[in-house]
Amino acid sequence: MGAEQTVNGSNGSAATAASVNGSNGSSATAASDRVAVAALDPVMPDPRASGKLPGGRHGIAPEVVAAVQRQRVLAGTIAAVGEKGYSATVVQDVLDHAGVSRLTFYKFFDNLQIGFLTAYEIAIDRLAQRLTAAALGAGDSGADRIPAALAELLRFVEREPRTARAVIVEVNAAGLEGLKRREQTLRRAAVALEGTLQDAEPAKPSPSLTAATIVGGIDSLLHSRLVEGDTEVTPLLPVLTRFALLPYSGVEMAAAEPRRL
Amino acid sequence: MAQDAAPDTAAQVPERAPQPADSDPQLPPELARLPRGRHGLPREFVEQNQRTRLIGGIVDAVAEQGYTATTIESIVRAAGVSRGVFYQHFSNKEEGFAAAYETAMSEVRSRFEQGFEAGGQWPDKVGGGLSAMLSFLAANSHIARVATVEALFATPQLARRHYEQVEMLAPFLRQGRQDGGAAPVTEKVILGGIFSMVSRRVLSGEERSLGELAPELTRFVLEAYSVEGEGLPAGPAPEPRESQTVATAG
After folding, report:
1. A238 contacts in B (CB within 8 Å)?
2. For A81-95, A114-128, B165-179, which range has the lowest pLDDT when averaged over its residues?
3. What does DSSP assign to residue A117?
4. Which residues of B touch A220 (CB under 8 A)?
5. Do A255 and B213 touch (CB under 8 A)?
6. pLDDT tens profile A216-242
7. Cα(B144)–Cα(A179) distance, rounded to whole angstroms?
8. Are A255 and B217 inside 8 Å of each other by CB?
9. What residues of A are in the B interface, CB distance below 8 Å?
10. Helix/strand/coil percent split, chain B, to 5
11. Chain A partners of B198 at a C-beta cutoff of 8 Å?
């Protein structure tokens, strides 16, 4: 997937990897991309972005080596699942993407499902951070923040289609636990949406049915685009913004205490 | 091995007492077993009946076990037909499931349509359609599972089919458009939101309470079409205003 960004992030484990790895790890294209997207931490970096650790005696602390390896396994899991689909993915695919041994994989995770769901949580957390940062940077009102967060979400799908496919489509195939995680993510998004719409802090612990339906609609639309293989989603921004701002549009949505989930 | 599924076609099976309608009360009467032995039924009727039973079996098996875990064996057992009969109708599980899914969805859609047509003005129609659809799903948990959950997550091909099926409801919503020019994506995202709420209730085993969602989902749809208007009355049962007001406000 050439469209995946291969830049290292500016913080977190990707940065650790970069510092371990010195200057020779990133591909040539990454250097030019870095300027453009320096502010953007990829939701899941390319598994090879950190480069290979030097072999032999390198004097790097074992914890650092382990952290880099773990990051590669996680990124490799997302890459493999996003590319082949969860049901078709086997551990060997992850190893191929991550460039680690089978032993290394099992050092961190007991099976593919656990590895994938761990990577899923990390990716969702990073995505949430990115959306929050975009929203907060856009202004003080929900009307400013919602479109900024949505634009960021669409940018994620376009720039990291493989990761998007893994976290929006394939999590549904990762057993009952996968469905549970997805449900949590959708709830979390609905709570955030509602809090932003009401300019309220902290948001209510359980989202209104309206907020949940809005989030469900957006998730469903992105899901349908991704199963079609269509990742050019930026044109959806106006419609999605209008849709997400529904409760904000002066309609007496809050007149009656809305049903909570 | 399922002994009752061994011989190939119904006509060749030695006579046995005709069985009553399948135990599942969800299944329509035509899913009752055919009389065994020489019954002189036209071939076409037998085949149609077998297909209908197979579809009932697929719905039950997939609803109970999930698409991935469902085997041809469990389908033919649930349908009370032989393996050979399955392969006369479908070449594999996915094809069988696609047919069963479409049957389930067309049933769901026809409930929506009936409820919709029974209403007066457009806002009423939307409420009627959603109520009828949700009550039907609440009362038919297997169909609810197949129509709103399993297809979505089974394979990408089936997920695509799911969106096509769901979008067949779009014209009913589109009647509420103010501007005619709004992006067709609007209906997709509204329908996606509705089906997302339904599928999440079904997944958490709360399908019996789906009917409760009708008033708020109705309000949601009406508001989605009145964003630029002066708004609709809040509350569970929106007044049936002249639909022109809704349709042209803005």
Report:
1. 183
2. B165-179
3. H
4. 188-189, 191-193, 195-196
5. no
6. 999 999 999 999 999 999 999 999 998
7. 17
8. no
9. 85, 87, 169, 172-173, 179, 183, 186, 209-210, 212-221, 223-224, 227-228, 236, 238-240, 242-243, 246-247, 249-253, 255-256, 258-259
10. 65, 0, 35
11. none
Kindly report whether the global pTM for this prediction surpasses the value 0.80.
no
pLDDT digits (tens, 9 = 90+) for A71-108: 999 999 999 999 999 999 999 999 999 999 999 999 99
Which of B190, B227, B235 faces A217 most closely, judged by CB atoms?
Answer: B190
What are phi and psi for residue B57, nearest 5 degrees?
A: -65, -40
Closest by Cβ to A250, choosing from B188, B212, B231: B231
ipTM of this complex prediction, to 2 decimal places: 0.76
Residue B139 token pair: 């009362």
Chain A CB contacts of B225 under 8 Å are none
pLDDT tens-place string over residues B34-89: 666 666 777 777 778 899 999 999 999 999 999 989 999 999 999 999 999 999 99
Distant-in-sequence, close-in-space partners of A134: CB < 8 Å, separation ≥ 6: A148, A149, A151, A152
- DSSP category for residue A160: -
Share the mean pLDDT of chain B. 79
